[in-house]
Write a structure and sequence with these properties.
single chain, about 425 residues, alpha/beta, five-stranded parallel beta sheet, 9 helices, about 25% helix
Length: about 425
């Protein structure tokens, strides 16, 4: 018996692969929601009005061997007895579910900064379908919105609300947008794009207080009082691991797992936003999916190893892409290219290598940035060198691509700095 706690991306892929590896294995899934799976990354599209909230809810493929406990919460885990205690939402009665292997995948919850007044009505986080529904209701009577946090979700929500006609201020305590993903020079390009959309951006900014009695009327930013009638908080998430505290090894609140996604208890696996793997913490849906695959295979008796991830990332607002992968090193090449002479679309890209010329990372902003980053991500997994990118063969036709692609230009700029004795073309 495999029990899975949480039906987010990690839990979904764990169940899928466990059932593939062992077609006789019984699987029980415990999920607090009343619906099955959904796409949290699609919430900005809901806010912008491109799609409806119900459009991001998806059914879970049922089989006779998979039992789904919707609207149930795991309230206790006893590793010594290999039992999960669950309770139906809204009821006091509990029940026990025995397991042979447990896969812990509850994800994370919004991390709220210590701002006075953050509990007021009109302050929202962005994590669930219900969050999007409440924001859509509130914004009908809103005119000025403050978005706290200029990471991916913050920027995407700021754009979405601006597209709906609201006046937007985007603030971050750090000095640029996407501080975890791109360098300052590329961040400047992103900021220019946001400002051209009419979004006010303020960096190195501390929101000291949210004003109003019961509902939001404004905020104090760096000592200045400003009027707002809605505030979106997008300042990251924290691991949802309280139920396992003291029962498995943790670090900074994250559950420590090995390359097989096992915790310090050999019968408990953990995946997704709540774990720290041998490669660190990377809270991306693609990472949760791969970790879920590994945990599902191993829990079902198979053999899977979690390789070092590249951390390929992309965020899109108004068709403008911000994308990155891997590490930043001292040796890099940068390139800017117009995509097709008859368009105004541009892409700026940087590629990073180590002193031996092995590709370690890349960043790109602009038109079709993620497609270039995906190429570099694959090359990193193959332990490729910069010459593999500089002299890569790619499909070329003037209607769809450039012969001298920005990836190659950036890679050749790296080669100028490396000055190799031999070129393998």
């Amino acid at each position: 018996m495999i029990v899975i706690i949480g039906l987010g991306t990690g839990g979904l892929y764990a169940a899928k692969w466990a059932s593939r590896v062992n077609r006789k294995e019984e699987i029980k899934i415990v999920e607090k929601r009343k619906y099955e799976t959904y796409s949290p990354c699609s919430i900005p599209e809901v806010i912008e009005g491109k799609i409806k909230p119900e459009d991001i809810i998806y059914p879970f493929p049922r089989t006779p061997r998979i039992q789904l406990y919707l609207e149930h919460e795991a309230v206790g885990i006893d590793p010594s007895r290999k039992v999960v205690t669950v309770r139906k939402i809204g009821e006091d009665k509990t029940a026990e579910i025995e397991y042979d292997k447990l896969i812990f995948a509850p994800g994370a919850i919004p991390k709220l900064p210590p701002i006075k007044g953050i509990e007021k009505r009109g302050v929202f986080t962005i994590r669930t379908v219900e969050d999007s529904v409440e924001i859509l209701k509130w914004m009908k009577n809103a005119k000025k919105t403050l978005v706290i946090g200029a990471g991916a979700i913050g920027v995407e929500i700021a754009h979405a609300l601006k597209a709906r006609g609201l006046k937007i201020t985007l603030v971050d305590i750090l000095s640029q947008p996407f501080p975890l993903n791109i360098d300052a020079d590329l961040a400047k390009i992103v900021d220019e794009r946001l400002r051209n959309e009419g979004i006010e951006t303020i960096y190195n900014a501390k929101v000291e207080e949210i004003l109003g009695e019961e509902r939001v009327k404004g905020a104090v930013i760096n000592g200045e009082k400003r009027e707002y009638d809605m505030i979106i908080v997008s300042t990251g998430v924290k691991p949802n691991t309280k139920i396992l505290e003291g029962k498995v090894e943790m670090e900074r609140g994250f559950i420590k797992v090995d390359e097989r996604m096992r915790t310090s208890d050999p019968n408990i696996y953990a995946v997704g936003d709540c774990v720290i793997s041998p490669y660190g913490v990377i809270q991306l849906a693609t990472i949760a999916a791969n970790q879920g695959i590994v945990a599902g295979i191993n829990a079902a008796g198979g053999n899977a190893i979690y390789k070092k991830p590249t951390g390929a990332f992309v965020s899109v607002f108004g068709g403008f892409e911000v994308s990155s992968v891997g590490e930043r090193t001292k040796i890099f090449g940068r390139a800017r290219e117009k995509i097709h002479p008859h368009t105004k679309e541009e892409i700026v890209m940087k590629v990073y290598v180590n002193e031996k010329g092995y590709i370690k990372g890349a960043q790109a902003v602009g038109y079709s940035a993620s497609s270039r980053i995906n190429v570099v991500s694959s090359l990193i997994r193959m332990n490729a060198k910069i010459t593999d990118l500089a002299f890569m063969e790619h499909a070329y036709c003037p209607e769809v691509s450039e012969l001298y692609d920005v990836m190659k230009i950036a890679a050749e700029n790296v080669l100028r700095r490396l000055k190799l004795e031999k070129y393998e073309v």
